[in-house]
Every structure is written in C-alpha cells, then in structure tokens.
Amino acid sequence: MGEFINPANVPKVTLYTGEQIPCVGMGTFGSDRFTPEEVSSAVAGAIRCGYRLFDCAACYGNEDQIGKVFQDAFEEGVVDRKELFIMTKVWNDMHERVEESCKKSILDLQCGYIDLFFIHWPFPNYHAPHCNADSRNPDSRPFSTDEFIRTYRQCEALLEKGLIRNIGISNMTIPKLEAVLPLMKVMPVACEMELHPCFQQQELFDYLVAHKIQPVGFMPLGSPQRPERDMCQEDIADLQQPEMKKIAEAHGCHPALISLKWARQRGQIPIPFSIYEAEYVSNLRAMTEDPLTEDEMKTIATLERNNRLVKGQVFLWEGASDWHALWDEDGYIVK
Ligand SMILES: NC(=O)c1ccc[n+]([C@@H]2O[C@H](COP(=O)([O-])OP(=O)(O)OC[C@H]3O[C@@H](n4cnc5c(N)ncnc54)[C@H](OP(=O)(O)O)[C@@H]3O)[C@@H](O)[C@H]2O)c1
After folding, report:
1. Does residue 75 form part of some domain?
2. pLDDT digits over 281-302, tens only?
3. Is 219's C-beta closer than 6 angstroms to any atom of ligand 1?
4. Is 130 annotated as a binding residue?
5. What does residue 155 show for φ and ψ, rounded to 5 degrees?
6. Active site located where (predicted)?
7. Is 11 touching ligand 1 by the criterion CB < 6 Å?
8. With 124 labelled, which of 4, 32, 131, 316 sits at a CA distance of 20 to 30 A?
9. Kind of pairing between the strands at 214-218 and 190-194
10. Using 50, 70 and 90 to split pLDDT, how confident is the model at 1?
11. Angle at 186 (CA atoms; ends 182, 188), nearest 5 degrees
12. Has residue 120 been placed in a domain?
C-alpha cells in the first residue's frame, strides 16, 4: 500500500451551512486523454491515500466506473459513505430533466445521495462530445434568467427529496449571479470556477465570498494537458512562470504544489486531476505541510494575466460575436 495521509490532518473549509469539508478534492475529468478505467483506478488509489472529496460530472463519461470503485471501498471497509464528499453536475442537455440526471449519477456512482450537486453551465447549450471549437449548435441561445431558475428550482426540489445535500453553481459571472440570487429559495453553498495563478477572477471571487458562497477552483494547475479544443496560442502556462518556478525551488517541490498551496491559502478549494499516484499523493500532502510565506502569496497575486483557458466557444449561439460574450465582461448579461 502507498502513502496514507490521515484525512483528519487535511485542513477543512467551512460552508455557510456550518459543514466542514476538505480543502482539496480530486478532479475526475480525463480531458479526453485518459480512459474511464484509468480515472477510476486513480480514484481508488486516492481514497486509499486519504482523499475524501471528489469532483465528478455526468458529462465526464466515467461515473459508472467511479461508482464501482466507491462501492468496493465501502464493501472493503476502507471508508464509509458519509466520510466522502461527492460532487457531481447536471450537464447542459438535461436542464429540463434534472431529477433524471441526478438519479442516474446516484445510480452510476453507487453513492445513495450527492453531497453537492452543481449546475455545470448556466445555460442549456449543448455540444456533442469531442466536437471542435468552431462548431455551433443551432439550438444554442443566450443566458436566460427564467430558464436558469427553472433548472435551479428542480435542484431545490432534489434537496427536499433528500437526493442531494447541497446545491452548487458553476461557470457563473457577477451579472448572472445578480439576476438569479434574489430568486433562489436556498442559496448555493459553492461556485465551481476556473482559478489558477494567471487567472484569479478576483472580483468574482470576492463577490462569492461576500455572499458566503465557497469558490471551488477548477484547472488549479492551469490544466497543462487540457483537450486541444481548449488550447489557444495566446494561453499562458501558469506553472512555467519564472516566479512560480523560483518559489517552487525555494520549497524544493514542483510548481504544481505551489499553485495548490496558493489556492488553499487564498481560500478556494482546488480540485487537481492526475492519474499518477506520485502526483495525486503529493497534491494532498502539499495541503498539510510547508505553507507559502506572505511574501510568496503576494508575488503570486501579481501573476494575474486574465488567462482564461476554458473559453466556452462551443456553447456560443448563432450570431454571438465571440467567446467573450459568454462571460459578461462589460458588466451586463450579453444577449
Ligand atoms: N466545472 C467545470 O466546468 C470544470 C471545467 C474543467 C475542469 N473541471 C474539474 O476540474 C478538475 C481539474 O481540472 P483539469 O484536470 O483540467 O486541470 P488541472 O488539475 O489544472 O491539471 C491537471 C494536469 O496537471 C498535471 N499534474 C497534476 N498533479 C501534478 C503534480 N503534482 N505535478 C505535476 N503535474 C501535475 C497532470 O498532468 P500529467 O497528466 O501530464 O501528469 C494533470 O493532467 C477536472 O478534473 C474536473 O474535475 C471542472
């Protein structure tokens, strides 16, 4: 058996409900590179090394394999269901059938209920798996508050039925939050968003914290192996920044771990992905030792470069100018 990091020693983050959850989780999106079996074997290893938080999604196409791994771990007595915090998401093509999607995830993941259920994207715009970045679905349309709230109400109903314990939102902007938060009966506990040293989304981050919504940071390492459709020439490699390398040298570790330490100390929950045991173990261990200094935190704060990697081109509607239209950059919802 490999290294075990006692989950009790992994720092916790407190949600507005008072519940404490681990400050780091494991991502499970194989980026079209890794098979469901490779990803689920990593989840099996991660549970045994002490991970308790997992970020899944219906659209990652591997929930049934991950479910087998969860079931084995429960049966073998490695972990109890209630010790795990399992997150998943409803995909864009199921916004009108949220309960069906949730029940399928619960069945596939063999976990009885979902701890945190996200609306993956704030609109129902669907794209076929593996499609290229220029493809447009003629049914795609701009964000609609009414449509979003219709989807959110279905999540609120899932809470009442006990199928989920918390609701989350993802890929949101401040203008969209301003439109929808006043209409919610139950506030979301978390917002999953892209966060890495060269893309810090400070304004949105502060807005969420002010509204007691916990930021969960996806692509915390700048996703060096993301699918080709999410790669552009102007993208910056976060971990290659000289400042990141220098801080990593001072700590005698890979810049990936510096990025995760920064994330934790700033207050977001990073959900790094790796199928390699040495990497995912070191990602968890990094949370328990050798924090960054205040000066190092300040240096990383200067690395903001507006380096958005998931631009979302494939969700654009006919007539939309370009991907910037998805992110309401001028302070209003682009229609
Ligand atoms: N809500 C959303 O819309 C959304 C969008 C994207 C992602 N996500 C979630 O966020 C998770 C993480 O994002 P991501 O997987 O794209 O990117 P990421 O975690 O930033 O990067 C993953 C890559 O970093 C490398 N890596 C991991 N640990 C390392 C270490 N200790 N040292 C060196 N390299 C290391 C691995 O590359 P090698 O394989 O080469 O080792 C791995 O493939 C996903 O799995 C998914 O759960 C959510």
Report:
1. yes
2. 999 999 999 999 999 999 999 9
3. yes
4. no
5. -65, -40
6. 60
7. no
8. 32
9. parallel
10. low
11. 85
12. yes
Residue 134 is predicted with a pLDDT of 73
Separation of 32 CA from ligand 1 center, angstroms? Answer: 12
Q: Residue 39: which domain range?
A: 7-227+235-327
* Statement: residue 221 has pLDDT above 90: yes
Number of domains into which the chain is organized:
1
CA distance 272 to 2: 19
Compute, in angstroms, the gap from residue 274 CA to the centroid of ligand 1.
6
152 is annotated as an active-site residue: no
Q: What is the identity of the amino acid at 96?
A: E
Cα separation, 264 vs 252, in Å, equals: 19
Residue to mutate (ligand 1; options 225, 258, 275, 310; most atoms within 8 A of CB): 225
Question: Both ends of the chain: CA-CA distance in Å?
Answer: 54
Q: Kindly state the average pLDDT of the residues 25-32.
A: 92
| Best of 219, 254, 271 for a ligand 1 pocket test (most atoms within 8 Å of beta carbon) | 219
Closest atom of ligand 1 to CA, residue 193: 1
pLDDT digits (tens, 9 = 90+) for 90-101: 999 999 999 999
Q: CB-hemisphere CA count at 13 Å for 40?
A: 20
Q: Closest Cα to atom 30, ligand 1: which residue?
A: 279
Give the max Cα distance, the chain. 55
User: Is 74 inside a domain boundary?
Assistant: yes
State how far the Cα of 63 lies from the Cα of 151, in Å rounded to an integer: 22
For residue 32, what pLDDT band results from cuts at 50, 70 and 90? confident
Give the count of beta carbons closer than 10 Å to the beta carbon of residue 202.
10
Residue 253 lies in a domain: yes
Check: CB of residue 2 under 8 Å from CB of residue 281: yes
62 vs 70: CA distance, rounded Å: 12
How big is the chain by its Cα radius of gyration, in Å?
Answer: 19
- Distance CA(151)–CA(146), nearest Å, equals 9
Cα–Cα distance for residue pair 7/11, rounded to 1 Å: 8
